Amino acid sequence: MADISLRKPSLTERLARALKPKASGEKLRKKSWSGPEARKPSSVGGSSLGRRGVGSRNQYTADDNLDQVDIQTGERRDDTELLHNLAHTGSFDSLHDPIHDPSQHNSSISGNEVFAKLPDRAWNNLVAHLVLSSTATLAFSCQVLRNRLKKDAWSILNLSVNHDQKIEFLVTLDSSLPDHLLCYQCAIYHRRTKKGEEKLKAANILNPLFNCPWANEPTEIPLKSWLVPGHKLPFSFVQLTLRHERYGSQYGIPVRDLDRRWKNVNSGWSQQIRYYYHNNHLLMRSVSKSFASAGLPPSGLRHLLYSANHDYFPYFSVCSHWRDGELMNLCKCALGHIPMPRETITQQLQKGKMISRGLLHSNPIVTLCSKCRPMRRCPECPSEYLIEIKFEENRTDPNPVTRFKQAISVTRWSDLGDGSTPLSLEWAACNGRAEYDSFAHIGKRAISGTFESQSGVTMPSQRMLSLNPKNVKLGEEGHDWY
Predict the structure, then answer these.
(1) Positions of the region Disordered (predicted)?
(2) 88 vs 78, 80, 227, 262, 370, CA distance in Å?
(3) Cα separation of 192 and 176, whole Å?
(4) pLDDT of the residue at 65
(5) DSSP structural state of residue 6
(6) 158: left (phi over 0), alpha (psi -120 to 50) or beta
(7) Are residues 281 and 158 both part of a single domain?
């Protein structure tokens, strides 16, 4: 018979042996808290030094967790207070930080002393890489830099050849002078004589905003932008509106104060001009309307579109490049789509024996062709045009039968720039004083869409074509504009 001790244990025996609790294990029991006074020191065999005694590290019992009395000194310890002192609660102001300690900065060198210790050669190299206006601005920043750079930059700015550089320097002082306005003719800040009461008036009315001896003298700088015959927009009002939006009401007037609406009794054209502030720029929209008859001859078209009293400028708002391109031809093409008025058979027989059925049922809704319907953009300035033929009511006509007539509407959207100087890119381009590629600068987002979105109006997508696709620049020498 085989020995029983050599028998392999079964699976049940192995599981029972594995799950059998160890003899050294003690069951944890929850003990009630009786306060530090109820705790008694436990005797530790082989040592009388307590928890802090030498050789007592391995002689603790289960009751040592409740021992709060040092046997050697006899003082009662509080571990809770010890743990709380180790944890940091509250601000870090009480901690010692040599970086933020004011006593550590008593011996530091200020920025003015650092500038004063730089050699003259370093300042000369710095000024050599700056333009004249930047050098004058640097000297104006603090007294130490003024003493090192001296006043030579300001003296050189007063020379007539450095007029543009002086303007750039004076523009940086705009935010600190609410009661003054920069005059670009004499490059001086003049005090505003009508602060808060500036009103935009017609071109034939004197409307000075400050006292300037050169106010009535012609200048090469475009200080006024052409709107419509008899009305111009001075650059000083662009300054006032943009200063108001940037710095506050003390610096200028609100943008809505520039909005105008009027009607020319002699020509019959009605004008509505509105402005908006967007992305630090001033945007303008001009809507011009006039009732037109069908079948006008070339002389009638010219009489309708041009003002003979203002050098044959159009009655609607245009940029300085209106003679180059297809603007006036597009207006004549749109007028050619106006249908003849409805005539009965009796009215036709009174004129002759021929009867036209098209005159019996004329459609008042005019659809323009693929040439004059798309929106146009001037390639040389930020201006966009839209030509429309609308069926509107003429309230001045006493006859109710012929009160509704066809009218031509020409809308122009323009970006007038940031108002910093009259030589800013957008303002100078609209007045023909700077080279500007509108399709490269503006991109896909049209000025018209940006302007109309300010009022929550979404314009339908349209084709945007060039106003001068052939890039012909003849000006008054060309005859297509007339």
Answers:
(1) 15-67
(2) 18, 14, 71, 74, 77
(3) 14
(4) 46
(5) G
(6) alpha
(7) no
What is the C-alpha to C-alpha distance for residues 147 and 139, in angstroms, rounded to an integer? 8
Amino acid at 258: L
Amino acid type, 354: M
Q: CB 40: neighbour CB atoms within 10 A?
A: 10
- Do 238 and 162 lie in a common domain? no
Among 85-99, 152-166, 401-415, the range of highest mean pLDDT: 401-415
Taking the C-alpha atoms of residue 108 and residue 105, their distance in angstroms, rounded to an integer, is 5
Query: What are 198-228's pLDDT values in tens digits?
Result: 999 988 888 889 998 888 777 888 899 999 9
Q: For residue 309, what are its two tokens?
A: 């009293």
Query: 């509505």: which residue's tokens?
Result: 272
Q: Is residue 180 part of a domain?
A: no
Range of the domain at 406: 225-477
Residues 126 and 266 in one domain: no
**148 plus 248 within the same structural domain:** no
In a domain, 380, yes or no: yes
Tally the domains of the chain.
2
Among the listed residues 186, 223, 175, 185, the one whose alpha carbon sits nearest the alpha carbon of residue 427: 223
What is the separation, in whole angstroms, between the first and last Cα of the chain? 134
CA distance 41 to 50: 9
If asked whether residues 253 and 158 sit together in one domain, one would say: no
Residues 149 and 287 in one domain: no
| pLDDT(428) > 50 | yes
Give yes or no for a contact between 65 and 51, defined as CB atoms under 8 angstroms apart.
Answer: no
Angle, alpha carbons 204-208-213 (nearest 5°): 110
φ, ψ of residue 197 in degrees (nearest 5): -120, 20
Q: Does position 49 have pLDDT exceeding 50, yes or no? A: no
Of the candidates 202, 316, 328, which has an alpha carbon nearest to the alpha carbon of residue 269?
Answer: 316
Q: Dump pLDDT digits (tens) for 128-140.
A: 788 888 888 888 8
Cβ-proximal residues to 372 (8 Å cutoff; 6+ apart), any chain: 330, 331, 333, 334, 337, 387
- Cβ neighbours for 129, distance < 8 A, ≥ 6 positions apart: none
In a domain, 174, yes or no: no
Helices marked H in 255-353: 298-305, 327-335, 345-351
Alpha carbons 162 and 160: distance in angstroms, whole number: 5
- Is the pLDDT at 84 greater than 80? The verdict is no
Residue 383 lies in a domain: yes
Looking at the DSSP bridge assignments, the partners of residue 225 are 233
For the cut 60, the answer to whether the pLDDT of residue 92 exceeds it is: no
Rounded Cα–Cα distance for residues 147 and 169 (Å): 19
Tell me 167's DSSP state.
Answer: H
Residue 265 pLDDT greater than 60, yes or no: yes
Do 232 and 142 have their domain in common?
A: no
Please check whether residues 123 and 260 belong to one and the same domain. Answer: no
